[in-house]
Amino acid sequence: MPTVVPAEGPLLQRLVAATPQALYRGLSRKALVTFDAAQAKTTWALHHQRRFALVEGDQVLAGAARYDLAGMLDQQPLRICALGSVFGVPDPAGAADHAVALVDQLLKDATRDGADLALMFRMPETAGPRPQGFEVVPLFDAELTVAESSRHGAPMTLVRGGEDRDVAAIAAMGRARAARFRFHLDRDVDLVRYTLTRTRLFAGLRSAGSAQLIFVIAEEGITAAAYVVISVSAGTWTIEECGDRDASGARVGALLQALIAREPVESRPVIRGWLPPGFVPPQVTISSLEPAGQVLLARVLSARVPRLTLSSADVLYWRNDMF
After folding, report:
1. What domains appear along the chain, each with residue ranges and CATH number?
2. What is the reported pLDDT for 152?
3. Up-side HSE of residue 210: CA atoms within 13 Å toward CB?
4. Using one digit for the tens of pLDDT, what is the confidence trace for 264-321?
5. Which residues contact 230 (CB under 8 A, 6 or more apart)?
């Protein structure tokens, strides 16, 4: 009889080894092992992240990571169970869907533990039917055009590399901007530090020269007043997250201008990201908008959530929070 157990020690190693290539997100198998071990040691992961396996005897049938998050819906706090890296080993006889069985059990456990909502990312719905009970949370990929000076110079903005001392200011910026949205995660200092660490690991562990991470700050005095986190790959800049104490986002726009102006002879990058609805810095225009390549699904687990139906204007969610 298949059983759901925590994936630890040798079982965790087998689970990682069984993970399909499609879930590696550009990492080699060796790099995935290093990545998994490194992120598990962060302060946030030690208290909020666990890996589980569906096993029968010595055979791994399915695997998933469970993340315990906090969030807000209609100004009310939520406990959220997010599931990531979900996979199942195909049943040759077609008699069982091991991934579905594992997800169902993890959601039963989360409901028993007091979770109000479940989240799960997957590839677009064309890849298969939507998991039972889940609805789509609308997210959009925006392609951005950044205005440049005719002299190709940088704006008068002090730009420096982001540091650990900036994390508290980043968390405060995020909470201030998130307050007007119906649904968002509660991104405290430990969660922000975790997401930044994870993004650094992804960039650092991919094959040499294939990826780069940009994390820069605009200061006011000695305090971070705006920031951007950008993944760079094959001429494309992907905004993982950003923030600005200025509601207009003008400092974020200036940071993007400064980054582009650093290498004026280079061809201009394609810039994409999930920007919060209504957040378009004055130096930026949205040249195209289309449904996100990854689908965020949500399922109500508790009677404390009477409704969930969300529009794109209701949701603030960063790519860096894609579990």
Report:
1. 3-137+296-305 (3.40.630.30), 140-291 (3.40.630.30)
2. 57
3. 11
4. 666 789 999 999 999 999 999 999 999 998 889 999 999 989 888 899 999 999 999 9
5. 213, 214, 215, 237, 238, 239, 240, 259
Instruction: Report CA 68 to chain centroid distance, whole Å.
Output: 14
For 161, 185, 192, the CA distances from 172, given in Å and listed in that order, are: 19, 13, 10
Contact 44, 285 (CB under 8 A): no
Average pLDDT over residues 133-144: 94
Query: In the chain, what are the helix, strand and coil shares in percent, each to the nearest 5?
Result: 30, 35, 35
The pTM of this model reads 0.91
CA distance 186 to 172: 11
Per residue in 188-212, pLDDT (tens digit) is 999 999 999 999 998 899 877 678 9
Q: Which amino acid is at 14?
A: R
